[in-house]
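PROTEIN DATA CARD
Card holder: G-protein coupled receptors family 1 profile domain-containing protein
Chain length: 231
Origin: Adineta ricciae
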Amino acid sequence: MKPELCILFYYAFNIASLAIPFAFIAFTIQRFCSLLYHTKHFFKTKRWIALCIASQWFVEFIISLPFVFRTSRKCTNEFWMTVYTLVTAVVVPSLVNFILNSMIFGHVRSSTRRVQPQNPSAWASRITTQQENRQQAPKISRREISLLRQMIFMFAMFIGGWSPVFIVDIFLQLVNVNTMITAVTILFGEYVSNRALVYDENIRPNITRRNMAKPRWATVRRLSSVKEILT
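Structure generated from the sequence above:
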């Protein structure tokens, strides 16, 4: 293979390895900003979504540039290249997703935590406060929380399925490993990815139906209590 084609091949390989993990990062960043900065109209627009997608691909192209400027002219997958792919495709996305999702769920938990008052005057004060802050309160539905959990689960399945491929690729640079092991890890990654897609197709309609059909008994009881207080 010509050196130019070899460089292009490994450059494209690294970009393909980063595509799905960085897509999860883009989704997490989009949800993170739309929830924590809900008062900013920009984070609710399609322009913000398009910016996240464009930034994802731009970062992938930039991160993969070391494969273009490598000094070796041999068409081989060098040791530093395998380590670099593992770090950029597994370690960094996992760390970023963990931090952002922890902050998202921490924000959701703190925003939904309410202290139940014990007397009518406290109820009236609470109603007034809620009416004043209704416009500023973030609207976080159960469906959004379910989708976030679903995305985290799918990301974990992807990382768990494809990490062995990158790890075995590193060991191939150090010791002689049976090529069957590489084939098995690739098949395992494909299987896990397919199972994640099947899970996504099955769980997404259930999330929608469950949130549409589930009665809001807590809201009904709260309104009944308020009515009794006012009367």
